[in-house]
Amino acid sequence: MGLHKQTRFITGCSSGFGEQFGRQLRALGDNVVATGRNADTKLAHLKDTGATILDLDVTAPQADLNAKFQQAIDRYGGSGFYEEPGAAAYCASKFALEGAVESLAKELAWLAPGIKPLIIEAGIFSTEVMNNINHFPTASSSGDR
Question: Which controlled-vocabulary keywords does the entry list (predicted)?
Answer without folding.
Answer: Oxidoreductase
